[in-house]
Amino acid sequence: MISSSVIQSVVGRLSQRVIISNSNNHIIKRGGAWLSSLASTNHVSTRLQSKYLCTINNNSFFIGQCREYSSSSSSASSSSRNGGIDKRGSLVQENYNVMTLFSFKTDQIVKQADAHYRNRQYQDAVTYYEKAISSTNDPIECSLLQSRIASAKFRGGLLSEAMNHFHTATKSIPYSHEETYKILAQGAFMLEFDFDLQVNKESKESQTMLARASTAWDAVIDCAPNKPDGYVGKGRCILKMSKPQLVDAMRYSQKAISLDHNYPPVQSFASEMLVIENKELLALQLLNKFFKNYKQFYEDSFIYKIDNSTIGDNYFRRGLCYLHEQQPDKAVLDFTEALNYLQEEEHPSVKFFRGRCYYAIQKYRAALEDFNTFIKYNPKHIAAYEERRDVYSMLGMHEHAEKDQKIVQKDREKKHDQRLESIQMYNEERLERIKRRNEDIAEKKRIIRMKQNEIEVADYKEKK
């Protein structure tokens, strides 16, 4: 959904040119708080709430990374951590993604499951992940596989079942394991997604769901403070609150950017905040990177999935950035692309800005159609009448232009009258306050005089 904060911050300008414990045995307080909140929905075991009893057995499997997107710098550090392999090794050039978390036998099955997952054959993927679980006795491998089943179920639209598998995944993996934060992020994202499905997001029940998701992202930050996921998730939740705190959201956005500006979830969230901060050029750079990488990232991710609304919002935001940078021809393409993803009720807002672009590139008929559509759904938006008036003028449709001008002029006069009325009401209220204050002063003086008279009478009687 297009953020109203973004639109409000752009319209005027365009119209004018979260210590982790390294022990495997303890859960930090905030993580515990999150697990407690999930436990209330029967999603997390008491075992994970108290302790992680299992330790890593380095002889049973290779420690690497899940098939997740990484920036080049992250890949380099991972290469160093995995035996100093760098990009010059031709046989292991994509080592970051192909390093395995599983023993050889299990890994062969997992690869088949992952292939089905990437091809969106989620039920087949689940079947192979379950087969992989049957092939191993290692509790950590089982946890990681349960997490992948949760991902496949989630992608397949079975949110409740996905949460149950997430619950199982948290039972045996140590808190210090490098994949733990991803499992926590997976659970947090599903909670946030559950909130997004609610029709009335302002209801007490919905806001309670959002608070749980926000607390879950706190736990991700505590588990992996050097990863951007927790900060992005926390920031998104802040924006979705009934009373969003933009300053806090911006702080989380800036932290996420400093950790990895090449990470698509960072690019998507941070670009929105940058537009709000009037930093369209920086937002444009992030969005250009986002659209180069996001498809492969979300296809491979075991944490996230992306919906049409998010894609549409990003096209819309990039269109705003292009418009701000006076590149209306590129903005038109992005606004048009946004219409393919956003829900129909959001189309008029997109068409308002696209209409401006069409006007700028002298496609007046197309601009007129967009402004007509916008005004049909937003008849009280006076700025649109001004825009359409100019289009009518360029098309030589002067009678229509005059009608729109009358609407604009009437609104100006109304606002002028309202301003005069407001000034008059202010002056009357001010005079009333002065009158009441003078009356209060007079009353106080009267009381003082009465007391003085009483004192004088008492003194007189005493002397007499």
From TrEMBL:
Residue spans of the TPR repeats: 348-381
Protein name per Swiss-Prot or TrEMBL: Tetratricopeptide-like helical domain-containing protein
Keywords of the record: Repeat, TPR repeat
Top-rank lineage group of the source organism: Eukaryota
PANTHER family cross-referenced by the UniProt entry: DNAJ HOMOLOG SUBFAMILY C MEMBER 7, DNAJ PROTEIN P58IPK HOMOLOG
